[in-house]
Structures
1.
Amino acid sequence: MPQPPKRPAASTVNKGVLHPRNRHQGRYDFAKMIKACPELASFVILNPYGKQSIDFADPAAVKVFNRALLQQYYGIAHWDIPDDYLCPPIPGRADYVHSLADLLAESNGGVIPRGANVGALDIGIGANCIYPLIGHHEYGWRFVGADIDATALASAKAILQGNQLTKTISLRQQPEPNSTFQNVIAPEDRFDITLCNPPFHTSLEEARSGSRRKWKNLGKLDSTRKLPVLNFGGQGAELWCKGGEARFVRTLAEESARYGQQVFWFSTLVSKASNVDGLEATLKRTNAVDIRTIDMSQGQKRSRLVAWTFLSPETQQQWRLTRWLKNAN
């Protein structure tokens, strides 16, 4: 199994416990990143410890930084998003993908299923298209990305076209804001995994308040320069919905039961630990066969993913034989 490239020991510091296959261990090698993406050079600064970094309060710097990461580590030559759309931290997104690969391996005798026969559905692909770009590069999976936002889908389409990925990553628009899988999963579809990064907040003001707390904790509120209203950007549907994360993941779980024989593992990130119990209770009511909660961390940030399946052990074995083992030879 290919391992992520190692950086020189001199550039390595502890950044939190990332997945062993995550390519973003240790400090970033800015010389290599600038070589892959020369425009990054104008955004590099020295942090208070004298180390190269960028100003994460500068949306333009964060966007170019992500572009450089995608170019250096994932071979993405063309990547851009509209202003004020979510520009996510890539290491944490990669951890989610690698954790799902481990989950598939547990269901496949310890071997990660790879290649285009493995289908993944990204609920809320956003303008950035991050999960499909990472998942396809690392494991060759085929992706469908769904979103309610036409502008986000247009941005994702431009990224796919710019990198010749339209044959392996396709897009679908969700016409109903209060639905997740309905209108997206067709009767003939079969997905090995689904991913979702749900909106966390209950309102736009709550999202803004969270950003203000972050800037205060970072000591930036005293700055005379104007700070972005939302750290990492984000449109309404990316950041908040009525009822917040708790309601969104409950709806996700309830709808998933209708498609339980078309998907092997459903999954979602859950940012707030107190929402896990409610999600698990909903899944038990919908008769999920197996429920997993997997902790993840990136620096000081703690999160977890919850995964579940409605397939019986017998159906799981048949799925493995017909979709993974049959195409592994």
2.
Amino acid sequence: MQIQTHTLLSPAPGTQRELVSLHYGTPGAGPKIYIQASLHADELPGMLTAWHLRRQLDALDAAGQITGEIVLVPMANPIGLSQWLLQGHLGRFELLSGENFNRHYPDQIEAAARAAEPELGADAARNVAVLRRELKRAVLAHPVDTELQSLRRTLMGLSCDADVVLDLHCDAQAVLHLYCETPAWDQCEPLSRFLGSRVTLLATDSGDNPFDEACSQVWWKWQQRFGDRFPIPQATLAVTVELRGQQDVEHPLAEQDAANILDYLRWRGALAGEAKPVPAAVGGARPLAGSMPIKAPVAGVLTFLRQPGEEVREGDVLAHVIDPVTARLTELRSPVDGLLFARDNLRFVTAGARVAKVAGLNALRSGKLLGA
């Protein structure tokens, strides 16, 4: 294993942050796997899972069992990890710009396509290699002006040429679930089984260019750009893995999640040894546009009546909001039949706050589909 240290752009004199990446295997020897944890720095289950992954990968590396290339970034956001206010961790948004750490990744699709086009031909595998080479060049050559931009460029430089990209996140309180682009669902479906995902939420360009989509959408967009002239497969599977809730930072869960990821990597050919059969599914895919936010129309004390993981019906009461002054009780009902897969961990809410999410079967929303 090799450890690489990536220095970020200094935001002020006397201040310097670094990103650390762990590199296993040999580039080009097999599939490239990229895994990062806690891009939202206050979502910690991924960091613990990465710790368990590192221990197991170290042992596999020592035994010569890594047949591909595996890059592990055990802590993907040193900026957000340092943002604290009055003992509260603020790891989702950069305090300087207000931007979400998991949005606004630069688009180098056209630049890479123009550079690669003279070398593209009838060989799909060669087309993939050429496009990956030019994409990485364009990503690394993109100028940056801020520390946040340098973090994004570093993460994309490490990941943009990978066959599989796993971005480990979590929700507030939730069951394990995934986000994936629709064109990659056929590749994601076995991963969802290995991880035991209760639901995978699919979209084609959900808006604001989150990290996973910046890695995967290049391929279906290149397919659209070049049409029938050149064969271009969906060469990258990029998935946001939501490892339950923020408080689910426990060794048994993280150890099992790490083992499940390694089982999948062995099935993909990145690790030696006999692969386990693909497990039975415990959940399927649903449109991200069918994930319906449950909003509180009034402020008050929030108490839930239903738990994450429960199937609910349209009209079911999911929670109460109680005004402590007037004693008024407001019922929050599900707008659709679906899976209550996530809910907030705050118990006093402001008017208009999103407090839960129900994954329905039908696409009902449009526009930008992700939350803030």
